[in-house]
Amino acid sequence: DQQVKQNSPSLSVQEGRISILNCDYTNSMFDYFLWYKKYPAEGPTFLISISSIKDKNEDGRFTVFLNKSAKHLSLHIVPSQPGDSAVYFCAASASGGYQKVTFGTGTKLQVIP
Amino acid sequence: GAVVSQHPSWVICKSGTSVKIECRSLDFQATTMFWYRQFPKQSLMLMATSNEGSKATYEQGVEKDKFLINHASLTLSTLTVTSAHPEDSSFYICSANSGGVYGYTFGSGTRLTVV
Lengths: 113, 115
Known about the structure:
The complex is a heterodimer. Chain A is an all-beta fold. Chain A has no helices and eleven strands. In chain A, the strands form two sheets. In chain A, strands 2, 4, 5, 9, 10 and 11 form a six-stranded mixed sheet that branches. A five-stranded antiparallel sheet of chain A has the order 1-3-8-7-6, with no helix packed on it. In chain A, strand 9 (86-94) and strand 10 form a beta hairpin. In chain B, strand 9 and strand 10 form a beta hairpin. By secondary structure, chain B is an all-beta fold. In chain B, strands 2, 4, 5, 6, 9, 10 and 11 form a seven-stranded mixed sheet that branches. Chain B is 0% helix and 53% strand. The chains are: A mainly beta, B mainly beta. The interface between A and B is medium-sized, with 21 and 24 residues.
């Protein structure tokens, strides 16, 4: 049972444009959500997170939006840069982030120069 | 920021031998660490939760006698793959909750190849 889903396995975007990565979850106990960036043969790198008490969190070029009623979140990258090309994982946890994290299946983003 | 050091970064071993992977939190204490496994082109699957001073909690389907976890101190957790077989070849990653906005910090991963 995949509790966190990223339905788009890959995404290609032109440099300078907006990248939108989507994530859906099914477990209503999740209250803390994170996005990670991962290169091959490396551990994930934390990008941005959001608590369920918020619906938006912004950090530089990265913004995460949370729609609790739809159990959906998205990561916006503006403007996209070639260095953003990587696999992005959405993740979720319960109890404010202090329990185990459940990862989505990942979306491979390619930013075309 | 918080750093989690994982060692070795890659290892090749013969079938039937055991391999130990170390995960250290360098600048924070971690009462709980997590071990993940990633198969090619797949998500990170949680294997077990490592608790300092107590037994690890394994996810369903993970053989606890095969994947031995020891969390002897607040900064070190180890995963030992016992009697390794080629199907154990994978990318293993540890993480710890460093608190604050960073949430979970991940190690750089270990590529295990069993030949």
